[in-house]
Structures are given as C-alpha cells and as structure tokens.
Amino acid sequence: MAVTDVFRSLRSPAFGSRSSIDDFLERWREELLSCLPGRLRQFLRRREQCLIVEPEGERAKMLESRNGEPVPVGELDFNASGSMHAMLAGSRGGNRRMVVRLSEDQILTREVSFPAQVRNNLAQVLAYEMDRLSPFRSDQVYFDYRALENPERRDKVRVELALCQRARVQDWLHRLRDMGAPADQVTWDGAWPKANLLPAAERPQRGPGLFSWNKLLIALVLSLGAAVLATPLWQMQQIRDERAGQIEELKKRAEKVKEVRAALELARQGSTAALKRKLDQPRMIDLLLELTDRLPDNTWVQNMDFRDGDIQIRGESEQATALINLLDQAPGITAVTFRSPVVQVGGSDRERFHISLKYKRPEGS
C-alpha cells in the first residue's frame, strides 16, 4: 500500500508544481526500499553514498552518511585544492550525492500567506516578492519553501519560507563543482525533510541510479505478469465473497420477516391499545393552525421538526424574544424555550431564532 500512496500523490497540487519525474522516481524508490527485508535494504542503501559538507569560513567539516547517520571523515580547506581533491577522490564510489549543510544561524525563515489562486506558482511568486518578504532581492538568495496546513482559511495558502544569502555558500558551491563533486542539495540544521535551497537549474543531472528505466520496465512487466496469473484467483475469491454476502443478506431478510410477523401478531393482539395511542397523538394540523394564529406577521418559520412530542422551530422574526410569551399562552404548548441564542440577521431588522417546545392535544379537543 505504501507504493500506491506515491501514485495517489500525483493528484496533489504540490506534486504538479514542485516535483519533476526525477523527484517522483526518488520517492518511488524510497517506498520500494521500505518494502524490502532489512538486510537487503541495508545492502542497497550502502551502494549509495551521501557526503555532507559543513562550511565554517575557509574550512569545512566533511561527513559521510552511513545507514542514515553522519560520520565525520575529515576536513576540507577552501584554499588547498590538493587536499580537497584527495578527500573527494578517496570517498567510495557509487551513486554519490553531495550535500552542503549550513548552520541554523545562516538561515532566515518566516511564514507568509498568499491567495489560494497562486498555489501552483508559489516559486515564481516568492521570487517576484522576495524583496518585500526579506531584506534581499531574489538574485541575492537561495530559497526553498513548503506549504503548511491551513484548514481554517481555504482561500489562503500558508507557506514557510527559508532563505540564505548566496554569498555565504556560493564560493563553496563553485569550488565543489570545479573539483568534480557538484552539490545536489543545500540544506541546514533543523530543515524539514527534502528541503533544498539550491535551485533546480543549478543541481547536477544524475541518473535514477538503482532504479534505471530498463529495470523499471522489467519490474513493470513482471508485475503485469503476476497480475495476469493472480487475476483468476482474485476473481474466484470475489465471487465467493459476493455469494457469501448474498447468503448473509438472505439471512437478514428472513430475520426481518420473522420480526414483521411477530410485530403483526402483537399489533393484532393490541389493536385497541394502538388505536388509543393513535388517538392520543397530537394532530399537527392543529399545531400549524395555532402557530398561524399566534405568530406575528413579521415572523417566518423556515423549518419545523417533530419527534416524540418534542418540536423544534427555526425561523426569523423582527420580535424573536417576544415569541416565548406568545407561544406559552397557546393551549397544549408547554416547555417553550430557546435552544440557541438569538442571532441578528445582517443587513436587516430580523433575528434568527431556534425554539423548542412540547405539544399535546388540548383537553376536550
């Protein structure tokens, strides 16, 4: 089910506006890896190396991600290209990713909101509005964002914006690119998952690695073959489930027939009591006539519900607070009260009311 969730995400607006086919393949790969046995998953993950560079002025710490944990492997000197070559060349091969991680104090974050109409063009809107949202122009910063939940305002989209000055990291990016190890990601301590300040145009183009197109096609063919073989078994199970459901439905109908027969027998035996109960029930036509006579002309009843002697009336009136006394004086009407506060209707003199009362046939009627 985890893999199908990735396909469902294709329908979300965020995917259409932010993700490329490479992003989709990476997410799909992660979901497939999570379905594998633990040892096989660890073996496949070891084939992919992630190098982390943490700049600190003219020097930088270099770490290697092993089983998801960063392990220090040395330091880089910005002015000593020979040492950088040696450090980068001494790393293991494979589908290596280079990550530049900044400290949290180098990042400016803030929450902003925009009309919902710009949801699919947030990147362009943020770049255009950067000088208003921050002290810098868009060509002076690297930035990334993520949409936040905003259930109370469907007409607005809340965004968490993160940015850093290009000057703080651009020299290191150029040096790494010159060393043949261009950065794939610029992130920071405390960043949200998959945060990347580096623009897509400046990221290196890498192949899908473990899941190449040929392998994906082979996997697709195998999946289709398995589906073809499993379809008859699935259809048989569906038929069995359908028949079992029909039998269960017939059993329920038989039980209902028994209940109806018992109810008919009880009704036949207690016809006198049923008739008396029917005669004791209030007639709604009498209540409607009483309400028509009692309620003022500036009162409109929009909805009236009756259940077990309890009546709910909703409507509008120019004298809503006076309705309680008017209804209390009517024969057969008792327990008149407001179920909710009276609300003024905007732009008018009317008040919206919700009254509950009990009604029984008056004596002698």
Concise synopsis of the structure shown:
This protein is α+β, with helices and mostly antiparallel strands and 365 residues long. It is built from twelve helices and 13 strands.
Task: Please explain how this structure is put together.
The chain is of the alpha+beta class and 365 residues long. It has three domains: 47-211, Nucleotidyltransferase, domain 5, CATH 3.30.420.380; 230-280; 281-359, Gyrase A, domain 2. The protein is 42% helix and 26% strand. It is built from twelve helices and 13 strands.
Overall number of domains: 3
Helix content: 40-55%
The CATH C-level name of the largest domain is Alpha Beta
Shape: elongated
| Unreliable segments of 5+ consecutive residues | 1-20
Structural class estimated from helices and strands: alpha+beta
Note the beta-strand portion: 25-35%
The largest sheet has its strands arranged as 3-2-1-4-8
Rounded average pLDDT: 78
| Pattern of helices and strands | HHHHEEEHEEHHEEHEHHHEEHEEE
Counted beta strands: 13
CATH topology descriptor of the largest domain: Nucleotidyltransferase, domain 5
Query: DSSP helix count?
Result: 12
Specify the biggest β-sheet: 5 strands, mixed
Radius of gyration: 36 Å
**Second CATH tier, the architecture of the largest domain:** 2-Layer Sandwich
Straight-line distance between termini: 67 Å
List keywords for this structure.
disordered N terminus; Nucleotidyltransferase, domain 5; alpha+beta; 42% helix; 365 residues; Gyrase A, domain 2
